[in-house]
Amino acid sequence: MTRFGDFEPLCRNTPSYTWCNLFYRQLSSDSSLKSILQGLSSDPNSAPVGVNPVCGIPKVGTTIDGPHQGSSTSLGNIANIVVCAVSMLFIFALIWRAQRRKAAVGRAELRNLLILYFLTLPFQLLTTGALLSQGSTALVALTALHAGFVAAFFWALLMNAFVATQAVEDGTPAALVPYFILSAAFFAGTAYVSFDVGLGITKALGPSNNPSELRSIPLFVLTSIWPAVASILYFIIMGYIVLIVLNETRPMFYYILAAALFVLSQLAWFLLGKVICEGSTSKVDGSFIATILETAAVGVLYLAWRSITEDSWDDDPFPMHPAYPS
Fold it and tell me: Where would you find the membrane-spanning parts of this chain (predicted)?
């Protein structure tokens, strides 16, 4: 029976599920547990992301056998690599455009949110791209940092909603200090838990007492529960601001679209991944579709923010006569 915090079903049935990199290292570093790694996971030099996955994309450069075309050389998760690279260019353009909106409320906070999402993309490219050998310390380190940036991003998302309420003035120390301090706290805490799972540093917050269970409640909470909670709270707060405070309806369509795209991205990752992987004979999986939808959701959030903020300060409609001192 699956218990809260179990990663085994996800690592088996969801191709390219990033956090499985931590559990593979956990098993491969213990000689008494190596026998658990079977099938596609038996050889770390070719093993795809996951732990005994039903279907996975082999490490780049390894030979795979296709039922119709014979053997071929794996290019790794090439579709998601390309999508991550293009997404980085797209998000960089959004950061530049947000920076130019000098008078917009929450400009600094949104810019930092976009920067955090931008930082997750190269890590996603490396941790899901089948570029590094499973079980390597480098892959564990990159995965741990990736998890930290993801957790920090969702705190930044929630903080953007708090700033939009104007309970504190945007761009001031009162808004930015908790923004950065708690972003750093989420990053450091999640990265520590991830390192603890992958490397077994202390085992205080890492895996369960039985590593073969592939179970870590803290990691599950920080990488699955926390993003869901932060997204729901963000949507509720922004809905209140748009519909009640601003008495607008059009911007709400942007937020609804962003929420729909995010939900679809998760469905693509967890439901379509194995279908696409098996249909493409382990060439691609659902991760590239999930990345496209996630990036689109962030882009729509930018449009929503732009629709409820001013681009620049209005000129003074009653300019002071030069004869009167200011």
Answer: 78-98, 110-132, 138-164, 176-195, 225-246, 253-272, 284-305
Look up residue 72 and give its DSSP letter.
E
> Is residue 324 domain-resident?
no
Contact indicator for 5, 216 with CB cutoff of 8 Å: yes
Q: Provide the domain limits for residue 202.
A: 78-307
* pTM score: 0.90
**Does residue 171 lie within any of the structural domains?**
yes
289: domain CATH number? 1.20.1070.10
Summarize pLDDT for 110-130 with one digit per residue, the tens: 999 999 999 999 999 999 998
Asked if 255 contacts 242 with a C-beta cutoff of 8 angstroms, the reply is yes
Q: Is residue 104 part of a domain?
A: yes
Number of domains in the chain: 1
DSSP states of 42-66 as a string? Answer: S-TTT--SSSS-SS-PPPTT-EEEE
Write down how long the chain is. Answer: 326
In a domain, 317, yes or no: no
Round to whole Å and give the CA distance between 175 and 108.
10
Q: How many whole angstroms separate alpha carbon 249 and alpha carbon 271?
A: 32
